[in-house]
Design brief:
By secondary structure, this protein is an all-beta fold. It contains no helices and 32 strands. It is globular.
């Protein structure tokens, strides 16, 4: 979803593939966390740094990673959150349809009212700094492209009246957004214009790799690439029991390292030339993805699923040394360099525990 994509620059060709395998720099693991409530569907994620991440979703849930564990934050209001973006840990914005934008600072939570917001969904948020942020949405009859200039929110004109889904950009004068069905629009710093139609429907997944170098998610297991004039399509498969699925989130650390997530827990990796599936530790719908570096990436989705891609010494996260929060037979190594569920822990003389290498 919105706020769940990031970018890089560069050029290159598009390609597709199957299979997968390990990706250098780390592995994906499930982050296990105590809920204290029924699991929610997480629809957006944003990592500010290696020890700060927020995931938001249905029923107003906010899960926050603080470096060693996942906590739950509660704010006023009802309805599901659909996007999150931050210029800093103490300057975070969270969106949900029908409500003011929720802004979190060191002073607490405040609301920022969007213009022309009645009966309009808010689906995605993305920014470049604290004075240049976009929120996109709308409904089946109208598009909404809201912009924050550091002082106020305004509504920009859209070239097509379709609901906007996802947004990402390289610079303030080079921003793209996906619209309902099969439309993509571009902002050049002064106005939004409609691009040539992609070959199929598009989703909220969007990642601008560089100048005239855009990837968006499609239906039927596809990813569409735009080179500034022409669209091409990559189809990934198989998707398991069903013939195909959809990608709803893309994030990249650079031109030769990106990830796409989607239905059935699928994880696809881009190496700068081609896309291929990588084994996933979950079968849950992965809806959004974001990271801070090639070896620090988060993916979230259905059933309160949180995945983390990190170097090879990390296991599933756990809290307070509680072995019961780990899979059967694993022990909670806490505290240590990285809190994890591992086959064994070693004890220091100070009474602390340290994680062994990931088995």
């Amino acid at each position: 979803g919105g706020g769940s994509v990031g970018g890089g620059q560069g050029g290159g060709s598009a390609g597709g593939g199957q299979g997968g395998g390990a990706v250098a720099g780390g592995h994906w693991s499930v982050i296990r966390h105590s809920l204290g409530e029924p699991p929610k569907f997480l629809r957006a994620v944003f990592a500010t740094n290696r020890s700060e991440m927020r995931a938001v979703g249905d029923d107003g849930v906010v899960r926050r990673f603080t470096g060693s564990q996942v906590l739950t934050e509660a704010f006023n209001g009802t309805g599901g959150y659909t996007g999150v973006w931050a210029s800093a840990v103490n300057n975070t914005r969270i969106i949900r349809s029908g409500d003011p934008v929720l802004r979190l600072t060191s002073s607490g939570a405040t609301g920022e009212t969007l213009p022309n917001v009645t009966a309009q969904n808010q689906n995605g948020i993305f920014g470049f700094n604290s004075a240049d942020i976009w929120v996109v949405g709308g409904n089946s009859q109208s598009a909404r492209l809201w912009h924050w200039n550091g002082q106020t929110w305004s509504s920009a004109a859209s070239p097509v009246q379709k609901e906007a889904q996802g947004i990402h950009g390289r610079a303030s004068n080079d921003v793209y957004a996906t619209m309902q069905l099969s439309s993509v629009v571009h902002y050049d710093g002064s106005a939004w214009t409609l691009l040539p139609a992609p070959p199929g429907a598009v989703t909220s997944a969007i990642w601008q790799r560089g100048v005239n170098d855009l990837w968006v998610g499609g239906q039927g297991g596809t990813l569409h690439h735009f080179d500034g004039s022409t669209w091409t399509t990559v189809t990934l498969g198989p998707w398991g029991e069903l013939a195909s699925g959809i990608f709803t989130g893309i994030w990249g650390s650079g031109p030769d390292n990106a990830w796409a997530v989607g239905t059935y827990g699928k994880l696809a990796h881009f190496d700068g030339t081609s896309w291929s599936f990588v084994p996933s530790p979950t079968g849950e719908f992965l809806f959004a993805i974001h990271g801070t570096a090639a070896d620090d990436i988060w993916a979230v989705g259905g059933n309160d699923t949180i995945l983390h891609f990190a170097p090879g010494n990390e296991g599933d996260l756990c809290t307070s040394g509680n072995d019961g929060s780990c899979k059967q037979g694993l022990h909670c190594c806490y505290p240590c360099g990285t809190v994890g569920c591992l086959d064994r822990c070693t004890t220091f003389s100070a009474g602390q525990t340290a994680c062994t290498a990931f088995p």
